Amino acid sequence: MSIRHESSAGLAARAAALSLALLAPAAAQEGRGPSVPEDPVVVTVNGSAIRQSEVVARLWKLHGPATVQDLVDEQLLGQAASELKLKADAKEIDRRLQALKREFRDEEAFLARLKRVGSSPEEVKRQLGEQIVREDLVLRRKGITVGEAEIKGYFDKNKASLATPEQARLRYILLRTEQEARDALTALRAGADFAKLAAAKSLDPSKDKGGDLGFISRGKLQPEIENLAFSLKPGEADLLGASGGWHLLQMVETKASLAADFKKVKDEVRQTLLSTKIAEAFPSFLQELREKAKIEPRMTGLR
What we know:
Blueprint: H1 8-29, E1 41-45, E2 48-51, H2 52-83, H3 90-101, H4 107-116, H5 121-142, H6 148-157, H7 159-162, E3 167-175, H8 178-189, H9 194-201, E4 212-217, H10 223-231, E5 237-242, E6 245-255, H11 262-292
Helix pairs in contact: 1-2, 3-5, 5-11, 6-11
């Protein structure tokens, strides 16, 4: 089931990684065994060769300068953080990781997304750690603070978005065809056990949990699926043909929306305001680091 949840820097990083991968075979053979051509052929097209130098030159032209700038900025930020001996707090890393996971239906959906983008929980934790250190760096160097009046003012203006939305605990079966879906619905209404039916018929990973999706807030599902889910009463089931196949849903129970409580969301609001101020101050802070640094290009053509 779809649940809602790359930048130039990402493209540049991939380009740099690719160029290194292309260079790796020659480096691996250096000083060992038969010599490797200085400019090996990467691929041939109807007998015409495309050489490593052509690929690297194209990558450099498209992404090289931006990649170098990214690496320079990373060095500057790392050096500045080292001067202050800043390190990411493990508890804060875990807090942010758990918050990120809550954007997904369950642990399996989170891990599946990481796998699709070629990442891992360890890599996410590393990136979160870097993010925390950089935020702390800007916070300290720019003297950023958030006052009580700011927090209360933000709360008063954003009570609706800070409220806990209505939630529904759902059971779910994904089927390929309408006939399969209608047969499953008929079986349920005749008294079939939902968990056993999900385990036997569903195409969704939730089949391993008997189709139980747990509590899901409004705004997390495809609109048409959400409309069906929240229209059901506890114990009721119905189906819908939408993207991905036929979706059979059963409502287990609901939780009404709750108004925002200032004491409970105060820390969350403070962090939101701090994050906003840090993001606004970051570009100018980074420019200050660049202007104070001694950066010496060592390659002809580097801009």
